[in-house]
Automatic annotation (TrEMBL):
Presence of the UniProt keyword Transcription in the record: yes
UniProt cross-references to Pfam families, sorted A to Z: FCD, GntR
Name of the protein in its database record: GntR family transcriptional regulator
Keywords from the named record: DNA-binding, Transcription, Transcription regulation
Domain HTH gntR-type: residue ranges: 3-70
The keyword Nucleus is assigned to this record: no
Amino acid sequence: MAKTPKSNLYEDLKRQILTMELDPDTDLDEASLSEKYGLSRTPVRDIFRRLAGEGYIDIRENRGARVIPMNHSTLRNFFLVAPMIYAAIGRLAVQNFKPAQLADLTQTQERFRAASESMDALAMVLENNRFHEIFGEMSGNVYMQPSLGRLLIDHARIGHTFFRPRNDDMRRRLQLAVDHHDGFIAALGAHDEDAVVDLVFEHWELSRENMEMFIAPQGLKADAFVGGPATQLLEKSS
């Protein structure tokens, strides 16, 4: 499908938010975006509304649009529900995925691995995000996909330091994350639901530890949630 100024604006804003080119709480200038993309105000506002519905931006009455903020409440809610939603998505993906989606996942993983080898942090953020988006598509569940999409926005923003390793331990963790993706693909291909869910929690723990190292406020450790209420609720529903 040919790109249009409107689709370019949509994709560019998503990318800039996920990669932190646009910081949380940044105001979006409707006039300058209209001029830059050669659009009138109406299609720009259409894009704003679409991105607001997907959780990327916040539209405030009489104050315009801004990148969705991150605050203490955001972080607490993120750490509370992420493992439960990721695991539920994983189970549904095993049950419902289509061969073409598995092929798409494999190709995305190839790009993610290549980006990790060249240490292209921005490409890693985007390909990792796409990898997990495909899981949502595989689930085929109209209730879970929006929740996953909203989680992935903050997962990318909170965890962006994961893709800029500063020492050998962080590089080891990044390599393990890449290997986890290969494990997901193998478990999906084998229709092994339990293996996918086990990997979800391993993958989450890896991400969680790295995110907490840099940003989690005191008292927001996720240990109480992984293996706690979230896991118990999931086990009861499975």
